[in-house]
Design brief:
OB fold (Dihydrolipoamide Acetyltransferase, E2P); three-stranded antiparallel sheet; Chloramphenicol Acetyltransferase
Length: about 150
């Protein structure tokens, strides 16, 4: 799973796993990128010590894609939206670059993010706010704990 993934996901509440069962292992993903899923559709199978259960979606919507080319290099790229998706987030390689902080230049880690989206369905200003929120959540992971 990509490091950026928690910033763009919906929290999924696991079903009651049963008495004395506090963990499970995902065994099968039941949806794909671009799938339109209704609320309560099964997303994955989770195997516990006692049973295999299906985990339902808490909301309806389209599966969002996050693509990461950071492992193979490159300072940035433009990911392509593939129908029926409406957006895709691209994550590039982290680099260290000089940034001005309090009047002096200091080395800072920079992670280029690229968001491509279908302008027929997503307003550009909303997309920019979403990308800014993702960047802020990656800069301050504690924000993810207080997401609404």
């Amino acid at each position: 799973m990509s490091q950026g993934t928690p910033a763009v996901t919906t929290t999924i509440k696991l079903p009651e796993l049963g008495e004395n069962v506090d963990s499970g292992e995902p065994t099968r993903i039941l949806v794909s990128a671009g799938d339109t899923i209704p609320k309560d559709q099964s997303l994955l199978e989770l195997e516990t010590e006692k049973a295999t259960i299906e985990v339902p979606s808490p909301i309806s919507g389209v599966i969002f894609t996050i693509t990461n080319l950071g492992g193979i290099g490159g300072a940035g790229f433009s990911p392509i939206v593939n129908y029926p998706e409406v957006a895709i987030l691209g994550i590039s390689r982290v680099s260290t670059e000089p940034r001005q902080v309090d009047g002096t230049f200091q080395p800072r880690k920079i992670l280029p993010l690229s968001l491509s989206y279908d302008h027929r369905l997503i307003d550009g200003a909303d997309a920019a706010r979403f990308l800014r929120w993702v960047a802020e959540a990656l800069e301050e992971p504690a924000l993810l704990l207080f997401r609404t």
